[in-house]
Amino acid sequence: MTVTPHPTTWRPAATPAVSMKKIIILGATSGMALEVQRQLAHQGRELLLVARSPQRLAELQTDLAVRGAQQVLTYSADLASIQQHTAIFEFARHNFPDFDTVLLAYGSMHDQKESEGSVDVLLEELRVNFVSAAAILTLFAADLERRRTGCLAAITSVAGDRGRRSNFVYGSAKGALSLFLQGLRSRLHPAGVRVITIKPGPVQTPMTDHLRNSERFADPEQVAHDIVGALDRRSPDVLYTPKVWRYIMTAVQQIPETIFKRLSF
Amino acid sequence: MSGQSAATLRKQPATSPSVKRVLSWGRYPKTAHHHVHKPAWNDQVPEILRAAAPGSLLPYGLGRSYGDSCLNAGRELIDCRRLNRILGFDESNGTVRCEGGVSLSDIIDVFLPNGWFLPVTPGTRFVTVGGAIANDVHGKNHHCAGTFGAHVRQIGLHRSNDGLVICNCGENPDMLHATIGGLGLTGMIAWADIQLKRVAGPWIDAELVPFHSLNSFLDLSRESNDRFEYTVAWLDCFAGKNPRGIFFRGNHAADHGKEFHPKRGPKLPFALPAWLLNRYSVKAFNTAYYRIHAAKKGTAVVPYDSFFYPLDSIQQWNLLYGRQGFLQYQCVIPETNLEAFEELLDRIARSGMGSFLGVLKQFGSAPPAGMLSFPRPGLTIALDFAMRGERTLKLMQSLDEIVQQSGGALYPAKDARMSPALFEASFPHWRGFVPYIDPKMSSSFWRRVTGAQEQ
After folding, report:
1. Are the beta carbons of B105 and B125 closer than 8 angstroms?
2. How far apart are CA A248 and CA B126, in angstroms?
3. CB B87 within 8 A of CB B191
4. How confident is the model at residue B137, as a pLDDT?
5. Regions of chain B where pLDDT drops below 70
6. Cα–Cα distance for residue pair A209/B84, rounded to 1 Å
7. pLDDT tier at A182 (50, 70, 90 boundaries)?
8. E strand or H helix at B190
9. Measured between CB atoms, does A62 come within 8 Å of chain B?
10. CB contact under 8 A, B202 and A209
C-alpha cells in the first residue's frame, strides 16, 4: 500500500513548530519513543528513526507518515554497538542535514539479581545504558556545537537519583548518564545548544511489564506529552515526568544514608 | 460463575503478582486471569501462540464488550492495545490497513480531517478494529450499510498452527467469514484492511422526533430509513407497552466551513455508590431527558461526536453503576412478532429495574457478514440493568423466555449470563463455526454457552 498526501478538508489546529523541526530519535522502537514519535508526527515534524529491526522501522515509517509527519527516514543499526555510531552519525549528516534535535530514548533493564550474579550482565547493563549513550551523544554534541544550534535530550530515570537495593545497577548507569548530561549542558551552553535530562518515573512500557504493579505505572501518552513539551520550550533543563516525581525524589534524597541503607525498596 | 452472587465474587483476592484482574465494560463478572501478554509488535505474537497451552488464550482490546466474551477467566489474555499502528492507506480508494489494536477513535482522528470516516461505527469510538471485527459491530446505519464486517476487505490472522493466514473473499473466504463475528476465537487479527467512506466534514444534519408508541416508532423508522443514513431511538423503558421516546435521524452534512473543536469530557473517578441509581432517580432522569430532547425537536447541524458518541463524553461512565457493575441486555426480535416486543417492554417496566439507556433500532435486511453475526432483520433493543444479584438475573431470565419463543436472538458482545439453550436458539449454526476455532483460543463466554470445559 502506498501513502499519498491528502487534500485537507479541515484540520484541528496543530501546535506551531517553534525551534524543533527535524528530530533524530535514537532507539525509535522503545516504548517511550513510540508515543513521543506519534505526537511529533501529529505536529507535522520531520523524523529520523534509528533502531535495530528494519521490519519494525518500516512499520513505524508508514504509521508516522500517515499520522502527519512531513518526512520519516529510518536507519537500522544497533545503538549498543559503539562501532556503528559513526555510520549512524554520517547517515544523519548526509540524509537528514540541519537536524536540530536529538532524543536518546533507548535503554535496557535487566533484573537486578541477574546483574549481581553475573559480571557480564552487569557490564552489559552499564554499557547499554551509559557507555554507549555517552559515546553517541558526544558525536552529536560536537556537530551541534559547531553549528551553534539545537537540542540534545536523553531519557534517564528517577532510578538514577539514588542507589536503591532493588535496582541500583540500572540506577547507577542512568545516574551516570544524568551526571554526564549535566556536564554536557554546561559545555554546550556557550554555544547555545540545549541539553535536557528527562527523568521519568515508572512508565507502562514493555521494559517494565515484568515489574510488580506495572499496571499502576504512568501512562506513556502523558509522559510523552511532557517530553514533547520540554523539547519545544526553553526550560526546564531537567524534566521529571509525571511531575510529582520531582517532589518524591527531593524527599527521597533527604533520607540520611544510615536509614536509607536499611530500606529494601 | 454467573450463578454466584456479585458479593462473594468481590471477595476473591484481587491481585497477587501472578493473578491479573481484568474486567469487561459491565464490570461483571469479576474475573482473574493467570497472565496478560502485552506484545508491542506483531512479530512477537507467533511465539506467544506457540508457547501457549491449548485453549488458554484470548485476544483482548479496549474491553468494551459488556459481559464475558472478552474474558478468559483463570487463563490468559493477549492485550492488543500496543499493536496500534496504521500500516498503509490507499488514497485512491480509501482503504486503510491497520493493526488489530488500532482504535476507531484513532482512525477518526487521523482520517476525518482528510475527509474519510468509518463505514460503520458503534455507539462508542473506544473499541479496537480487532474488537469491531470479532463482534461484527453495527451502528445507526445498519439499515443501509450492514455491519462493520461488511467493510472488511482483508484480514491477516495469526493462527497457532499455520502462521499468518491471509483471508479475503478469494483466499480463505471461509476463515474470513468465521473471523468476522468470531469473538476472537479464530486467531489473533494481525491487521485488517478497512474500507473507509468519503464524507464532506465532521458535521451531521440531525433531526429529533419525539414519539409515543411502538407503532409510531416503526412508522418513523420505515419512513426514515430511505431518506436518512443514520437512525436510532432512545426509549423510556419505564413507560411500558406504549413507550415514549426520541427518534434520532441524520445524514452527513455538506462542508460549511465552520470550525470544529474536538473536546474531551469529564471523567468518573471512582465507582459511585449503588443506591444513587434507583427507580426514582432513573425515572426522574428519563423524564428530564425526554423533555429536554422533545423541546429540541426539529433539525440542527451537530458535530459528529455528539451525534454518534454521546456517552463517550463521560469517561468511564460504567462506574455509574457502582462496584457491583451492570449487565446489558440486547436482543433482536422479528418485526412479525410485535406482541412479543411489547410483552418484553411491559415486563421491564413492571420490574422497575430498567435504566436510562434504552436504545431501539430497526435492523436492515443485509445478509450477515460473519458466521456468528448478531444483526438480523427485526427490532433490536439494548438496555442496562444495574447488577443487584439474583433479582436482576431472574428478570433477565424471564426476558430470555420471550426472546426465545419469538424466534429472536441475544447479542454475545453484551452478554454475561445467557443459557446454552438460548445461545443455540440465537445461533443455530454455531457448530459449523467450531472447526475454525484456533486450538489455542478459548473464552469465558464460549465455555459458558457451549459447555466446552476442556477447550
Report:
1. yes
2. 34
3. yes
4. 98
5. 1-18, 240-241, 257, 262-265, 453-455
6. 18
7. very high
8. strand B188-195
9. yes
10. no
Find which of A3, A6, A10, A35 to mutate to test the B interface (most B CBs within 10 Å of its CB). Answer: A10
Q: Are B283 and B238 in contact (CB under 8 A)?
A: yes
Report which DSSP code applies to B151: G
Q: How far apart are CA B414 and CA B330, in angstroms?
A: 7
Quickly tell me which residue has 474486567 as its cell: B23
HSE-up of residue B297 (Cα within 13 Å, Cβ side):
10
A225 in contact with chain B, both atoms CB, cutoff 8 A = no
Question: Is residue B416 within 8 Å of B2, Cβ to Cβ?
Answer: yes
Q: What is the ipTM of this complex?
A: 0.88
The grid cell for B171 is: 483466499
Q: Hey, is the C-beta of A12 within 8 angstroms of any chain B C-beta?
A: yes
Average pLDDT of span A32-39: 96
Q: How many CA atoms lie within 13 A of B328 on its CB side?
A: 26
Distance CA A184, CA A195 (A): 7
- Residue B218 has a pLDDT of 94
Q: Is the pLDDT of residue A9 over 70?
A: no
Contact yes or no for B345/B243 (Cβ under 8 A): yes
Measured distance CA(B82)–CA(B385) in Å, rounded: 32
Cα torsion at A82, A87, A93, A96 (round to 10°)? -100
Q: Which grid coordinates belong to A244?
A: 510529582
Helix (H/G/I), strand (E/B), else coil: B448: helix
From B34, B24, B38, B29, select the one nearest B4 (Cα to Cα): B29
Record: contact A209-B38, CB cut-off 8 A = yes
Chain B interface, best mutation among A63, A72, A205, by max B CB count within 10 A: A63
DSSP B30: -
Strands A238-241, B20-22: pairing is unpaired
Helix axes A168-188, A132-147, angle to 10 degrees: 10
Determine how β-strand B358-363 pairs with β-strand B378-386: antiparallel
Distance between CA B84 and CA B99 in Å, rounded?
A: 6
